[in-house]
Amino acid sequence: MNAQQQVPLRVPFDYVIDSVVPLNGATAPPRQFDEDADFEWVMTVVTRTSPLLTVEVIDGATGRVLMSNPVNIDNFAGTAQLPFPLVEPYVIARSSLLRFRFVDTSGAPNTVQLVLRGYKLYPSNAPAQGASGLIAQD
């Protein structure tokens, strides 16, 4: 391990995206991530009024769209009882923005709560400050 790399302090944290999608309409709520730490996204959970809903995620820091096409919400996220794990954790830089585009086809308003479960990654030498430098890999 490089002397400048430090193992971060991993604190469990959930980022919540709430949205009411109009009938046969779309919303694109952004989620601004806190500036105090990077976020390691490891699981996704959702509740929704209807499964007739798709989601598309765009990483504002990189401009990457995280899927080739909009994904049915039930293929994207699990439930509180059975969360959907990411095969590889996705680290989101502090102060970054993710945009979630929901499209409803149910013919009724669709209330959605999407939860990104994971860990805030605080620097071990300054846990009250934001991430500084590289994240160490064991």
Explain what you see.
Helix content is 3%, strand content 49%. The chain is elongated, with a radius of gyration of 16 Å. The longest helix has 4 residues, at 73-76. The strands form two sheets. Strands 2, 3, 5, 6 and 8 form a five-stranded antiparallel beta sheet that branches. The protein has 138 residues and is an all-beta fold. It has one domain: Sandwich (Jelly Rolls), CATH 2.60.120.
Question: What's a quick, concise take on this entry?
Answer:
By secondary structure, this protein is mainly beta. It contains 1 helix and 9 strands; from the N terminus they run E-E-E-E-E-E-H-E-E-E.
Write the layout of secondary structure elements.
Elements: E1 9-21, E2 26-27, E3 30-32, E4 38-48, E5 53-59, E6 71-72, H1 73-76, E7 84-92, E8 97-104, E9 110-122
Antiparallel strand pairs: 1-9, 2-8, 3-8, 4-7, 4-9, 5-6, 5-8
Biggest pleated-sheet summary: 5 strands, antiparallel
Helix percentage range: under 10%
Low-confidence stretches: 130-138
Structural class: mainly beta
Q: Could you say which overall geometry the principal axes of the C-alpha atoms support?
A: elongated
Secondary structure tally, helices: 1
- The CATH topology is what? Jelly Rolls
Q: What is the CATH class name?
A: Mainly Beta
CATH architecture: Sandwich
> How many domains would you count in the coordinates?
1
Give the H and E element order. EEEEEEHEEE
Percent of residues in beta strands? over 45%
End-to-end CA span: 8 Å
State Rg.
16 Å
Mean pLDDT across all residues, rounded? 88
- Quick one: how many beta strands? 9
